[in-house]
Structure to design on (286 residues):
């Protein structure tokens, strides 16, 4: 088990104090582990929309983007921001299965807390590049070494994880490297969001908020929970539905990180707890 993991498996409990303590610990470990991480170019967004254009072969487009291309015959908008030196996350183990212990990884808990979004919006809600690059790196690295990925065998291009083909990941990395030439997917990170072209301003705000929270986590650890800048207040109002900001219990649960895995449905309740703290801090600042 990697250094920094919480010992043992998650307890079968929704105890608020248990969840709170795990969140506090995860944030403190995250601060200690990733203190060297820096946001590239002050959080400037990289537009990689062209990679996911409907003109591209169908196989390289994530499912949410495919639906937009097919239903609306529109080119979706896809953007990312870059962090140098991590934080790198590994969600998958042998046979491309979720690691059974991934919910105990402080880095996973913290990055999952950045998965802000409006439920039900087609597209890429928030994907960290490493979570799809890591399990596909053998195929992706082969594709990065050729000018045109279409010249490579389909078994390499169409290898997939989490709805992303190796072709999509490789093309995304090439697009990122166009703006940031020394970007290294084995060490650096990109946070990607996109979909409906009519929501471009929403994705910009969500990514900016995501980056602000990431920086604050790295600098402040658990202290991030009690602070909220005026810029965060403005962005949170643009990103989250009113019901969420009003602390409606049902609406808040829609923001909890939930995934179906080979081990069954897994949840990270610390993500909902993180958002509750930030909303309380927002209310004080507002």
């Amino acid at each position: 088990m990697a250094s920094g993991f919480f010992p043992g498996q998650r307890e079968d409990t929704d105890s608020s104090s248990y969840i709170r303590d795990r969140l506090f610990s995860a944030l403190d470990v995250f601060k200690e582990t990733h203190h060297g991480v820096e946001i590239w170019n002050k959080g400037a967004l990289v537009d990689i929309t062209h990679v996911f254009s409907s003109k591209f072969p169908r196989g390289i487009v994530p499912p949410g983007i495919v639906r937009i291309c097919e239903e609306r015959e529109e080119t979706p908008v896809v953007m990312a921001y870059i962090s140098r030196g991590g934080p790198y996350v590994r969600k998958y183990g042998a046979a491309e299965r979720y690691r059974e212990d991934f919910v105990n990884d402080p880095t996973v808990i913290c990055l999952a807390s950045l998965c802000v979004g409006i439920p039900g919006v087609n597209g890429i809600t928030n994907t960290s590049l490493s979570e799809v690059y890591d399990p596909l790196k053998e195929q992706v690295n082969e594709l990065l070494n050729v000018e045109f990925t279409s010249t490579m065998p389909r078994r390499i291009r169409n290898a997939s994880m989490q709805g992303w083909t190796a072709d999509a990941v490789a093309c995304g990395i090439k697009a990122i490297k166009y703006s940031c030439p020394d970007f290294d997917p084995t060490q650096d990170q990109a946070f990607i969001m996109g979909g409906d072209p009519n929501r471009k301003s929403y994705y910009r705000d969500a990514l900016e908020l995501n980056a602000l929270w990431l920086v604050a986590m790295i600098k402040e650890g658990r202290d991030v929970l009690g602070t909220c800048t005026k810029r965060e207040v403005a962005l949170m109002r643009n990103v989250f539905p009113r019901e969420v900001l009003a602390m409606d219990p049902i609406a808040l649960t829609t923001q909890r990180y939930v995934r179906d895995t080979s081990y069954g449905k897994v949840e990270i309740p610390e993500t909902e707890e993180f958002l509750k703290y930030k909303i309380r801090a927002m209310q004080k600042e507002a």
About this structure: The longest strand covers residues 77-84. Residues 16-285 form one domain. Residues 200-220 form the longest helix (21 residues).
